[in-house]
Amino acid sequence: MGELQEPFQVINESSGTSNGNDAGGVKISDGRCKGNQGEEIFSGSGESVEKYPENQLVKEWKNKVNDLFNEVSASEEPEQSQWWYDNEAEIERTLILATSHKQFDNSPIANCSIQMSKEYADFVNRSGRKSFQTTPPSKMEMPIPLSVVPFNNEEKGFNRRGYMPRMKSEYLKSPYIIRAVDITKGVPRQEKRVAEWIFSLQGEPNDIVFHTLDGFSAERFHMESFFPTCELFGHVIDCWSQVLNLDESKRAPESPLRVYCKTDLTNSYLESDLTESQRKDKFIENLLLSIEDMDASLRYVGLLFLPVIRSFHIFLFVINLQHPEFVIIDNNKVDDHIDERYGQLPQIIKKYIIDYLKSQNHPKTEMFSHVMPYRLEMPWRTINNHIDCGVFTMRHMETYMGGSMNEFKVGFKNESSAQDDQLVKLRTKYLYKIITHEYNVQKDYVLQKVDEFHKIPSRQRSELLAIAKEQIHTRLDDFS
């Protein structure tokens, strides 16, 4: 808040040497402070500056000090610096960046990190995550310390992966923001356009159409499996996990934190010939990779989603850590006992989860150790549909929030032609949501290709789509 002054130097009058060059500034000699012109300002031996009431420099500094520390009565509104208003957006962004670094709203702030000093951590712990968009400077509980001033984005002092934002500002969060895809509405034209380009088989199968800043990507042929009557590739489920994890930044504060793992976590190695220790180590390794940049301790996680692929069938395990439960969500309507249907897989995963929770001193470890896996009996489960299990799983991941069946707002009709229509619609909508997600760095490239495709005459496009419809299954079989 002060001003930079001219440099000063200490003069040793006996030797005539100084601690710096002879540039102008304040000189100290025999405990006495002298100005640029050699005039004595005041003594450094404890004498009060009041001894020099007529000195102009003393007067100026006295006025500045009085202005800076002048007490304001309770009835007065202090005049605020324009700096707060001019830098409001940057302050907010810096707070979000620092508090979202491997953290979530309901977790305590770390004491320090590469980008966050101890002073900053203390500041956030005392003041909380306030929205600087809505809090005027006059209402600030305390000034932001200098260590909180936004760092220069041009600095190259350290290397790290691309920044992947996790938390949104409070004013972007609301229980009224509907993040789940609405299947009661039709498919908009822009969604159909993207789907037509993907299903036209234009371009190379290995073209990257989805890529996030943390290095996760998907190729064109993965997205082509959204074509109706095709079975989804497991990698599409991994893309969906990535999208849903990113979208958790928009959840309402009262919503449980949901963390979505990748299919690698439950691969067949869990039932392989590896030793028990090797299987558990591999599981923990894949778990940490799946929740990288998330809450690795699981202490603040409400629901942990584990998509499973077995014998070309995709279903879901959900670990509820807030109100301990182990839920199996499977669209296939079977009457088999859980052990007959899923073997020892639920018990293996439960054991490894418990071991990991113990290693993290998770407060719900003991309660979770007593739960038994059970299967949800949803009315929309199917008997004859053996193609859309991946789409069902994506919908279950998107809409399950824990609680009773009445709270499971999935929107599916019972097995029927009407349900088939919903599933076809969801394929297009989910494809569009993944491709046009805000963190897909390939989004503009894809939309450019979509525009180029739709500049082709209508008749020619129809011919291309008809040919692709006949060839798409053969093309995908080469990658399955």
From TrEMBL:
Keywords: Hydrolase, Protease. It holds the Pfam family Peptidase_C48. It comes from the Eukaryota. GO terms for molecular function: cysteine-type peptidase activity. InterPro entries: Papain-like_cys_pep_sf, Peptidase_C48_C. Residues 11-21 have a biased composition (Polar residues). Residues 276-421 form the Ubiquitin-like protease family profile domain. The keyword Nucleotide-binding does not apply. One of its GO terms (biological process) is proteolysis. Gene3D superfamilies: Adenoviral Proteinase, Chain A. Residues 1-49 are annotated as: Disordered. Belongs to the peptidase C48 family. This is Ubiquitin-like protease family profile domain-containing protein.
